[in-house]
Amino acid sequence: MHEISIILAAVNARYSHTSFGMRNLRANLGSFRAASVLREFAIRQSPAEIAKQLLAEIETCPTGTKPLIALGVYIWNRGHCEEIVRRIKSEAPTTLVVLGGPEIAYDYEATMLFRQCDYLIRGEGELVFAKLVADIAEGNLPTAKVLEDKTPDPMLLASPYDEYTEDDIAHRMIYVESSRGCPFSCAFCMSAQDRSVRTFALDDFLDQMQSLLYRGVRHFRFVDRTFNLSAARVLQVLDFFYAHAITCQHEENRFARMVLHFEIMPDRLPQKVLDKMTLFPPGSLHLEVGVQSFNTDTLAAIGRRQNLKATTRNLQFLRTHTKAEIHADLIAGLPCEGWDSFAAGFDRLVMLRPQELQLGILKRLRGAPITKIEQQYGLQFSEEPPYEVIRTAHMSGTELLQIKRMAHCFELVHNRGRFPETLPLLLQDSPFANFMALSEFIFEKAGRMHGIAYYTLVEYLYAFLCRQQRIPEAQIACALKNDFYRKPGRKEYLSFLDTSRPEVSLESELAN
After folding, report:
1. How far apart (Å, rounded) are the C-alpha atoms in residues 130 and 158?
2. C-alpha–C-alpha distance, residues 181 and 22, integer Å
3. How far is it, in rounded angstroms, from Cα 356 to Cα 358?
């Protein structure tokens, strides 16, 4: 038996995120868990800095032990991982590097990451990683470089929830899962590769949620691909959390409000589930709703089974009769979806009044079935992460760039909730046309869509609404002032709204 030191390393998109995958790996290491540590980083840190910290960790491993680093590779951290692995293998070549994650699970053979790693684990890795560690400790190094166990039985897996620290609970997102897999076959989604749905024993799962509640967790982010597959199961989970949500309302700590985040299919909400959702306090339910498209030809092309009438009806009910916060998704660049179709779908979804509407650009995720139909529908993708579509048979590259700019504009003005009084001026008639014109206006003035200060954004909004929408200036100024000064303590003076100053062209001021 050889001594082994295991470093589970995660490069997260931001500090507030936690690596659920690495916690699952650590929880299932059995007797080797004590020989492991979890080290998490954020993408804002440089690869050199992260590699330096990991190399320092390797140097502290007890003499005679075999160091092993496990690293999860995702679409957002691939570049970081490449540099980290290169530095580790260059400066500590005897360190075993084990990779996993969706960004290295497919089309990996010619990649630098695969060439430099010692082992690659494809699929769900808890059990196969634990076996690999045991084999290494016993001196039985596997001869195969690629190891795989796609669908472990959830009943065989140890719970990862004890791996959350008190600091995690106090400051970071807590991810949980009650099921794995997805029965649908949407071409853009990696989950279409494995359509088996496996559920964790519900009584055990709720016991674990109770334990997290006792430890102070109040924000639960479910990673289930489609939470609402079983109405009976949904009702049991909602019943459990509803009792605690009511209790949390009466806690003195203002941060104690219960928040549940679920990813749902909007057409699979029977009335008894909708009725249960009406009982939850404001802000307790965050529902991520994958609409993606209202074009029936598009839905057929990507293999997405969705009842659009039920989708519309359920979203209307949720906004009218519940206090849930709706985060709806729409994807640009899908097959058979042209400019006019996408604009109509956008306007239709905006009229259903989700609190957030996320406009995404179609991506060619590694392993997703979209690769099988890209030639048929003229889909051309970037070769660099995040592999966004750059043109289709129905939408030009210029149009996709315009939509991408508009998506960022919509995020700034609509999704962040900073303009409740001004928004109605932009949402009248055609929201798509208005926001497209606004985004082009801002891009023309600023030459960019990112890094625009809030004060400057207000100034652009005023100029645009005055010039483009032909709304009375007094009405525009009143709405913008109310929105701007809504935040307590804001003292900046909106000089461009001062009607007492000498007449000056706002266009000329913006140009300067």
Report:
1. 12
2. 18
3. 6
Closest by Cα among 268, 189, 278, 266 to 233: 268
> In whole angstroms, what is the distance from residue 413 CA to residue 425 CA?
12
* Token reading at 63: 């003499």
CA geometry: angle 411, 413, 419, nearest 5 deg: 140
CB atoms inside a 10 Å sphere around CB 266: 23
**In 3-state terms, what secondary structure has residue 382?**
coil
Residue 456 CB coordination number (10 Å): 14
* 3-class SS of residue 26: helix
Cα→Cα distances 169→174, 212, 244, 511, Å: 7, 9, 17, 48
What is residue 249's predicted lDDT score, i.e. its pLDDT? 59
C-alpha to C-alpha distances, 342 to 78, 298, 390, nearest whole angstrom: 31, 10, 16
CA dihedral 70, 76, 79, 81 (to 10 degrees): -10
Nearest to 338 by CA among 364, 373, 301, 365: 301
Average confidence (pLDDT) over 397-407: 97
> Does a cis peptide bond (omega within 30 degrees of 0) precede residue 335?
no
- Does residue 41 contact residue 50 with C-beta atoms inside 8 Å? yes
Does residue 254 carry a pLDDT above 50? no
**β partners of residue 121:** 147
Give the residue from 483, 475, 435, 427 showing the smallest Cα distance to 455: 483
| Res 331 pLDDT > 50 | yes
**What is residue 246's three-state secondary structure?**
helix
Residue indicated by tokens 């100024």: 477
Compute the average pLDDT of residues 415-438. 94
pLDDT, tens only, 301-312: 999 999 999 999
- Please enumerate in sequence order all residues whose Cβ is within 8 A of that of 316, keeping only pairs 6 or more positions apart, or say none: 352
Task: Write the DSSP string, 270-326.
Answer: -HHHHHHHTTSPTTSEEEEEEEE---HHHHHHTT----HHHHHHHHHHHHHH--PEE
